[in-house]
Fold:
Amino acid sequence: MTAAEGHALMDPLPRVSGLFLLLMSACAAPDAQDSTAGQPYVLVLGSAQDGGLPQIGCQQDLCKQARRDPSMRRMVSSLLLVDPRNKKRWLIDATPDLPEQLELANQHAPRPMEQGRPPLFDGVFLTHAHMGHYTGLMYLGREVYGSDRTKVWCSRRMANFLQDNGPWKLLVEEDHIQVETLVLGQELELATDLGVTAFQVPHRDEFSDTLGFRIEGPSKTLIFIPDIDKWSQFDGDIELMIEGADHALLDGTFFADGEIPGRAMADIPHPFIEESLDRFSAMPARERLKIQFIHLNHTNPATDPEGDAAATITAAGCGIASDGQVIEL
Ligand SMILES: [Zn+2]
Ligand SMILES: [Zn+2]
Structure:
């Protein structure tokens, strides 16, 4: 596994000077070459909870720090699945940060130059209908890119939600997106040795149910569960899934109970990282090494790589996903 930080790309582009962009493209060039030369890989486009870091209106230290220091920023949780062999790329969750995330995607896995408005992605996979995970679809509509029948893979309930409710149904009716239903437990083949399998995850289901994804490449397999209520409610066997994979990007929304002052955390259940570390401590070290926490809330002290929470995670043999990180498949 190689990790590349995409720090400078997290600064909103309009504020970035030309010289800075030039320097950054020079810095990013070796990475881009490495990434596009070989086997399929996953690029982490974002590692924060739906509201990102810093979060709107937030005056706590982690948010203030992230406003001062762009390297502390985290975009909303999202992955890019890339197959450099046939120059294809798929988006996994479409976030409100999509414009910046597309820039990051283009640095690593540029599309072949084409006239007009070529598809930005060969498809989009969606986990569920919470704002951080699908509202990026708005950029594919008439007001912005106006994409042509971009395939959007999701659960049946999510598909119905998009097809039946404005403004999303306009994307469908005007052929900007083409909604496709995933069959749970059945691999969708993207290449002979690359596929995505969806599975059900328990999570607050106001508008849609929630999926996790298992991405199987030529050499490695990755599981992605950015949002889940509690491990004890999961029908699948998370330990078995980790054993059967090489990488596990798992819900790390909150580090510990009491993290959000004045708000009942039982209303927004997630496995606290402390709980996950405790649960997974029964697994051998080689299994724990596969685990990286993603979807970190702006209140989560583990967002600071130099902090005590991050040190606790590392000491437990696990890791924290970062924007710009590359995971080979
Ligand atoms: Zn979320
Ligand atoms: Zn959610």
Q: What stands out?
A: The mean pLDDT is 90. Residues 7-24+34-328 form a domain with the Metallo-beta-lactamase; Chain A fold (CATH 3.60.15.10). The chain has ten helices and 14 strands.
